[in-house]
Structure formats: structure tokens, C-alpha cells
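BUG: 3D viewer hangs when loading the predicted structure for this chain

Environment: internal workstation, default settings.
Expected: structure renders.
Actual: progress bar stalls at 90%.

Input used:
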Amino acid sequence: MKKLLKRRVIIPVMAISFLFAGASYTYKSDFFEIAKQIEIFTTLFKELNMNYVDETNPAELMDTAIKEMLNDLDPYTRYMNEQDVEAYKIRNAGEYSGIGAMVRRYKDKVVIVEPYKGYPADDAGLKAGDEIIKIGDIVVADFKDDASELLKGAINSSVDITYKRQGKTAITQLTRKEIEVDAVPFYEMIDGQTGYIALTKFNRKASKQTKAALEDLKSKGAERIILDLRSNPGGLLTESINIVNLFVPKDEVIVTTKSKVKKFNRIYKTKKEPVDTSIPLAVLVNGRSASASEIVSGALQDLDRAVVIGARSFGKGLVQRPKKLTYGTQLKVTISRYYTPSGRCIQALDYWNRDDEGNAVRTKAKDYNEFKTKNGRSVYDGGGIMPDIEVTSAKSSSITKALLSENVIFDYATEFYYKNQFADVSAFSFSDKDYEAFKKYVSQSDFSYETQTEKALKEAMNSEEADDLGVTVRTDFNKLLQDIQNSKIAALDTFKAEIKKDLQDEILKRYFYREGLFEYNLTSDEAVIEATKLLGSYSRYEKILK
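C-alpha cells produced before the viewer hung:
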């Protein structure tokens, strides 16, 4: 019944969303169809709730219908209830009241991902990998909503947490306090001339903190700068423009947005006087650098103001805007695509022309279009920002993404932490022997992922035509599948550099917090080392940009 309802309400709920979002004026030609679908929906919903054999929950049914509808669009257009709206505001503001830890919910668990140094969770001794099983009197597994929201609350209020660590259960009480989420959690001099800035978020503090870091590094003798945007998922568009403005003159076009709604077509230019328009600059990106990170790296690349180093970025060229609905809810809706100064849209996935299975289609390299930077260098659209210098360990293969998404790397880091000790960052090491232990851990875990090739083969052999191919073909098919399985195991060696990098990053935070990770990267990270070398050779730097 639930699935049937999902199918029936998608169109009418879409009509309602358009009206609530205040964009109905663009649908005047379809007004009759909209009114018709709304009427169908209201009568259906009324009859369902009056006549269904069991009690229904109208709020849950509507919530499911809306979310299913939006799933057919893109992953960034989504409905936000009152809790979601509050969380959205917190992310943008960079301030909230809570226990001071990044948590993740998957399945029926809430797990500590990273306790922030000096905040309540850290002071109480909570560690990454701890599984929270009760918050106050509420059992997490029985709580249908986002249990992590229960960790937030008024400043100085207390919360009891029951958690499990290494098979043992413990209870602790924390007093919530105001949490400051820095956009720039770390900056430092690498050597006498090179400054490093880690920008991890684009909240309202981003440009202010980046400017402060830049000016402080210059006062300490920095004559070149590395701006690290790796794994920065983006955020506020205005902050990305302000950050580019630190390095380029006033009135420079940074990004253009284009939409079917004319008022959303905008040209964004720098508005302030810059801090430094000539200091040599390297920008680090990887496959988890998205949205605002790509605006910054793409603009600086197009304007030949920086050399981009690392791996191709995520490829999110879509802009969202929250639209207020009723009862404190909002619709975060994709309103436009954005374009870098050269005219590139770097959106990688096409959510509007899907394949036969309904999956978004990735733009193929042969379909990329060429654009020119300010100095006439060739750059391309269609799939994220391509770095000027690629770094092997910064890349993310499908197996690395699977190891991360299925929490294999995270869980192994937890196990490693409780088996090894290091006095300080300089003593840290993750040897080839350690990596072999990780490979063994993976082989003994329930980790599995299906490649596109496997999926296609299985579908082909499960089709009616496959029955006519005979035993020999099926035997060869099974052998091919086994060969693919073996190649996936071998992939742990093929992509060792990038997997090892993610392992080290996760493990280092367990011992020395995020600050320790950045400190280690200053002298041990491949991308940082490459950027330092490049900036140390001005002739090479200049040659790339010209």
C-alpha cells in the first residue's frame, strides 16, 4: 500500500511544492493540469485516511511522498522539516550548542566520527568509533528520527550518554556548551617562505578566517601560499566569491548562474580590494572537493591566478536556494547551474537524462568542451575541476569510495588505534606491514561492492536470451565473474597510494586530532610536498600559468 501511495502522489505533491515555493508564475500554461492534480491528490488522501483498514499516519505518508518525488530530480533538491531547517542554519553559521563531536548515523547506530579537541565529548573521554546506544532514556535503535539531534540542546544543559566501546558498555554525563565550527581549523608556515591554509568549510566564517590566516602568514614571512580545499564539500556561494577576492582585483567576474527563471540569472563579481594579487598560489583539490570549493579552484584556475594540484574535483555545478514553506519547513531547490569565468559548467552528472535503470549519466570525456583561461590555456567542462598537476594519492577509485562509504577504513582505524601507540606526530608511521594487515582485515570482513561490469554481466546472464546460450557460455561467464572478483582483491594493491592516504588521515585524527593530521601533512603529504616544490620554483610555476 505504501509503494502504491508513493506512485499516486508524486505528481500532485510536485504541483503543491511548486505553488508553495512561490514559483507558480512559471507554470501558468499548466495551471489547469496543476489544479487537476491537486484535486486528485486531496480526494485520494481523504479517501485513504478514511477507509484504509488500519490507522494511517498522514504526516509520515506525506513526508514519504514528498521525498520520493524529490528523489526523481537531483540529490540536492530536498524537503527540510523544522529540525532539518535548524541544522541547515547551524551548518551555515558555524555555531551551535551541543557536545562538540561529529557523529554519523547508519543503520540503527549513532557513532562518534570525530570528537573536537577541548569540547565536552572530548573532555568526557569519548573516542571516534564509540557507538552511542542511549541518549538520556531514549534507546537510539528505537528512535525513528535523527537521534543525533538529541545531542544538541541549551548551553549548560546536561545529557547522559550510554555508549559501547570495544564490546564494553559505559555511561558518561556531558554538559553541553557553545560549539564553534571553524572554517579554517589550521594554518601554519611549512618553511621560511611557504604558508599553508586548510579551508574545510564554506560557512559564514570562511572568508574572514581565510583572510586572517593569509595576513598572519604574510606577517610571518610567507611569500607563497598553499590553499587546501581537499574534501571540502562546499557551502555558501557568497563566501567562495569573497575568498577568491582575497587574491584577485575588485570587479572581476567569478561565477555566473543561469536558470530558466530570469531573476536567478546573475553575474557575481568581486566587491572588495584584495589582500594580495601577486603572491604565488597553489590550490589543492580532490574528488571530495565540491560546489563552493570548485567555484574557488575553478575561478582561480580560469583567471590564471593559481596552479591547481591534486585530483579531479567532484563536479557539482548546481546552485540551491532554500524556499520557505508553511509550518517552519523549507524546500531546498536547485535553481540554476553555475559557470566559471571561462564559461565552464563543471557539473559531472546529468540527473535529467538518466539511463535505462534511472541512474544519472556521467558526462563522458569525449563530450567535454574546451574553454580558454585568461592567458589562453585550455580547460574543460563536464566533470569537475581538472588539476594542472595530478597527484596519485589524491585520486579516488571506485574501490576507495566503497571502502569509505561502507566504513571499512573508519572501522579499521578504530581497531588500529587500540592496538598501537605513538608518542607524538613525528613518531607516527603506517608501514607496508600495516597495510598488509589492512588487506587481511578487508578480506575477512563482509565488505563487498559490485562493479558496473559485474552488474551488466549478471543482468545479461539473467535475461531470457541467456537460456539459449548453453552450458559452455555460462561456465565462461562464471569464470569471468571470478576473475573480476580476483581483480577487486588485487585492486587493494593497484590503488594502494590513495587507500593508504585515506587510512593515514583517519588514523592520525584518532591520536592527534585534526590539528595533528594537518601538522603531519605539512611534511609528509604528497600533494603538499608537490605544491611546496612547485612554489619554490617560480619559473616552473609561471610556465604552467602561461
